[in-house]
Every structure is written in structure tokens, then in C-alpha cells.
Amino acid sequence: MPHEEPLPLWLVNVPRDQWPTECPDFLKELGEKDRRIIGTPDSEYKKLTWEEVKHLISINRVDLFHRVPSELRRYRQFTHRLVKEYGSIMEFMVGVRLHWERMSPKGRPFEYDDDITILYNDWPYGIDDKIKHLVIWTKFELEDDPGTGLSTPESHQQIDSYVQKTFGSRLKPENFAWFKNWKSLKSVHAVEHFHVMLYDPPKDFMEEITNNDVPMTAKFP
Fold it and tell me: Which of 77, 58, 81 is nearest to 67 (CA)?
């Protein structure tokens, strides 16, 4: 059998009849991690189970959450377009996704619902399809320890209390978990947010909590 050269990363997971003649601009300046992921066939990617997701959160290894290779490719294409059309991802998030006319909070952290918006993660990680990934966006800051980049004990308690109140009344404790990305992992730095993962939540609850939100991955071609 003749040895087959591996495909260039920009052709991986793309139907042969849609192969570009050269590397698209949105894939030209990738870091090593993204190059490795996008160059991996989807067929070789294993989605994380709920137990694996909870374990990574419990040991604070959220850096090990990755998108399915073809989804990461679409995400890079999407954000490349956003920067061209809106100037920055933040401008798109605030104006189009969050519909916030002002960024300043009305009160203290979690004091007013108007300072909080719950949306689906537009480009979720490669996880079991029963797991729903939400992002809680806040107009108020959630304090981090400048030395570690992690939440301070007070901030951690504030988030946990909110999550328990919001999701604990409708879901079993073992069916939801939250985390806040390290500063170095955040894709949108200018708008405060943290993440909540839910395992097999009721459809009506998801519609209610997200105000019938639809993630961008379901809208982007």
C-alpha cells in the first residue's frame, strides 16, 4: 500500500467537493492547540460524558474542555467574520446577543435580575448531547485573585449561591455544575461571565431560563 500523506488541516472534516484551493484566512493564524484539534478527524474525537465533565470541573481542569474539531473550525470562521463586521467579539456580544444598552450594573452582584442574562454557549464543547451548556453573563464584576486568576472565596460563594438558587430548585444536585474560566482561557474578556452545565434538563425549563434562546452554532451555516 502506498503511504498517504496526511491532509492539510484546512481540508480535514471538509467534504471533498467543498475543498478550498488554499488555506482560508480564518485558519492561517492558529495556535498550536487549535491546529492540532482542527487537524483531527471528527471520527477520532470522543465526546466527554457527564461524569467526565463533572470531574474536570471538580479538579479545575477546564482547560481540557475542547470543541469537536469541525465545530472549532466553524467557530474560528464565525469569529473571523464577527471581527470584520462588528470590530470585535465584544461588540457583537453586547449589541446582538445580550441586547444591553448599558454595561453598568444596577446594584451589587446578583442583587438585580436586570444585571444578569442567561444564554446558551454559542459554541459548546465536545460533550454528551444530553448536556446543555449555558453562559451566565453579568454586568457586575466577579472578583478574581490577581495571583492565581481564580475566583476569590467570596466571589466563589456568590456564584455558587446564585447557581444553587437558580438551578437547584428544578434539577437534582448531581445534574448541574458550574465553573468560571481562568482569565487566560476567556474568549470574551470584556464582559464578565461564568458557565453552567446541566445534564438532561427539561425542555420547558431551558426555554424559560434562556428566554427561548438559540445558540449561534444552530444559526451559522
Answer: 77
